[in-house]
Specification:
- 2 copies of one chain form a homodimer.
- Chain A has 198 residues and is of the alpha+beta class.
- Chain A has one domain (5-197): Glutaredoxin.
- Helices cover 57% and strands 9% of the residues of chain A.
- In chain A, helix 2 runs parallel beside helix 9 and helix 5 packs across helix 8.
- At the A-B interface, helix 4 and strand 4 of A face helix 4 and strand 4 of B.
Chain lengths: 198, 198
Amino acid sequence: MVKPLEFWFEFASTYSYLSAARIEDACAEAGVPLVWRSFLLGPVFGAQGMTDSPFNMFPVKGAYMWTDIARCCSDLGLPFAKPSSFPRGSLLAARIAAAHADEPWVGAFVRAVYHANFAEDRAIADDAVIAAILDEIGQDAAEVIATATAPDGKAMLRHATEEAVERGLFGAPSFVVDGALFWGNDRLEQALAHARAA
Amino acid sequence: MVKPLEFWFEFASTYSYLSAARIEDACAEAGVPLVWRSFLLGPVFGAQGMTDSPFNMFPVKGAYMWTDIARCCSDLGLPFAKPSSFPRGSLLAARIAAAHADEPWVGAFVRAVYHANFAEDRAIADDAVIAAILDEIGQDAAEVIATATAPDGKAMLRHATEEAVERGLFGAPSFVVDGALFWGNDRLEQALAHARAA
């Protein structure tokens, strides 16, 4: 019995970009149902006593990350341009992805936001940029944003982030399959194998 | 023109165990010359303001690491038993690997020390355990240790560790190919590809 794969992602996270770009195809190819789980890394880092991205707290590691992500994008054939601001605020985009996780367009939205952040250096923290992205993928921006920022919509992201902390997530991307946690884009294949063997 | 691959490793490092177990075969298969670069992570972490393993400083991440390393060992067919002490002191073993890096038996020694630490839960910080391992691989323990702990031998590890900091290493395992840094067992294949393309 194949289990679903939960994809936990944060729009500010560089390595989530790699997974977001390929996860819908990878799950389809493996016959594994995909569950989009948008969350915020800030409170997760905060729960561990961190007040910034580890890539900013540890600049030597951060410098490497930018080299590594450029190489990984090149290997995957993904465009990449180092964002002029990092990490970018992702609250509205994350609320939209949480509140609309079951919509057929959520994958297109997620990929478009990552592409804006990491290939086009657009300011995804700005509501206007998110509205423009919704327009670009053919959605009614005002309606989508209204649902995501209504009290029920906001609660979905807040609960997801609380669940992330409770379940021992500490970074993004993370994959959860049948209760088992896999961390990092490098573990997507292992998580898919687990979903098929579970 | 194929470039050599420098394998930077620390005997206390769990993920270095995964690379150490397979790197000699992987390099031989790829036709890439292998350079063993033993170093100490403690001073490297210290240079970033850390006083312990990040896996101990961030326990949520540490808990995941032990699950992940067990799964990765299983995938690679490697025996694994969580060590009762972590991270174990590795000074003598690291000095031996640094001072004898060009000996034909260095690979066997490196693998035996990792196996002792991560499959047999042996106290590799104890000189007697290291001497026993040298005996097990057919080396003259007294002679090997004498060379590694003479002033010239000690200097080799100290200089290697200084070089690691200067070159922007921040963890282990790391691979350096033609000046390019690759971090983590998950990047061994990328580093090998770089060595063949450089």
